[in-house]
């Protein structure tokens, strides 16, 4: 074999093949690889997102009027339809296509409506809870004022009745609970303490707002008609005419400006 002819089995031939890699699709040179990446980024930035492209195509289609050559449009014209007018007998009908609400995401149909309904119900519950709290607070405050006024009237009635040497009140609730129970024990020695406790429990059970308001009204009338006394004016008159001359009325609301 001559020197000019290369041995295809020699290492020299393999070394020459390694000098340049010409395999398609592969870039091993750093500068070429960097240029290729920059080119890919440039092309990618020039492309519009798929969603934007779909929106543009949809809007373009909605803004484009149906051609008069359209078969469906010709059929409408035969039925009396004119471009720019509404369908039906009413002239106030819709003249523009109904807008398409595009659903984004993969939550499923009705998911947004379900969330809005839950949010609405939660808001209603919060509002009702706040209203109930305010109503309960007002109710407790009114009940507290009733008990306070009733106790004040009972103490005044006790004092005035004792001065007139009365042994028992005209009505049980005209005197304080403690005083009435003590007198009951003395008058009825045969009854044991359990029965007295039962009586006390019964009085406690009856202390509702309506019952207290009725008891207070009866007691205020008693003090006014028998002793010419008003717990809100904190004054006793010589007679009913004298009381009416300076007392605005029987109830707390009549004295709101003075209390």
From TrEMBL:
Q: Which domain of life is it from?
A: Eukaryota
Q: What Pfam families does the annotation carry?
A: DUF4187, G-patch
Species lineage: Eukaryota, Metazoa, Ecdysozoa, Arthropoda, Hexapoda
- Tell me which InterPro entries the record gives: DUF4187, G_patch_dom, GPATCH11
**Which stretches does UniProt call biased (Acidic residues)?**
191-208
User: What GO molecular function annotations does the UniProt record carry, in alphabetical order?
Assistant: nucleic acid binding
Q: Name one GO cellular component term.
A: kinetochore
Region listing for Disordered, in residue ranges: 186-208
Q: Which family is this protein grouped under?
A: Belongs to the GPATCH11 family.
Q: Where is the G-patch domain?
A: 68-114
Name of the protein in question? G patch domain-containing protein 11
């Amino acid at each position: 074999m001559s020197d000019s002819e290369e041995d295809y089995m020699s290492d020299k031939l393999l070394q020459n093949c390694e000098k340049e890699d010409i395999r398609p699709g592969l870039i091993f040179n750093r500068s070429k690889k960097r240029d290729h990446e920059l080119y890919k980024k440039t092309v990618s930035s020039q492309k519009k997102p798929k969603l934007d492209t779909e929106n543009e195509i949809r809007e373009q289609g909605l803004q484009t009027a149906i051609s008069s050559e359209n078969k469906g449009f010709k059929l409408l014209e035969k039925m009396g339809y004119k471009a720019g007018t509404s369908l039906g007998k009413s002239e106030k009908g819709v003249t523009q296509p109904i807008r398409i609400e595009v659903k984004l995401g993969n939550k499923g149909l009705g998911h947004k409506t379900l969330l809005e309904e839950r949010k609405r119900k939660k808001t209603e519950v919060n509002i009702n809870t706040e209203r109930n709290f305010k109503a309960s607070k007002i109710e407790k405050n009114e009940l507290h004022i009733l008990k306070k006024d009733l106790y004040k009237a009972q103490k005044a009635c006790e004092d005035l009745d004792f001065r007139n040497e009365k042994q028992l009140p005209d009505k049980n609730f005209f005197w304080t609970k403690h005083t009435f129970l003590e007198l009951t024990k003395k008058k009825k020695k045969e009854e044991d303490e359990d029965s007295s406790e039962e009586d006390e429990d019964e009085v406690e059970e009856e202390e509702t707002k309506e019952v207290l308001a009725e008891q207070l009204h009866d007691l205020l009338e008693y003090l006014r008609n028998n002793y010419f006394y008003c717990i809100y004016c904190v004054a006793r008159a010589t007679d009913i005419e004298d009381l009416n001359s300076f007392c605005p009325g029987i109830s707390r609301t009549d004295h709101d400006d003075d209390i």
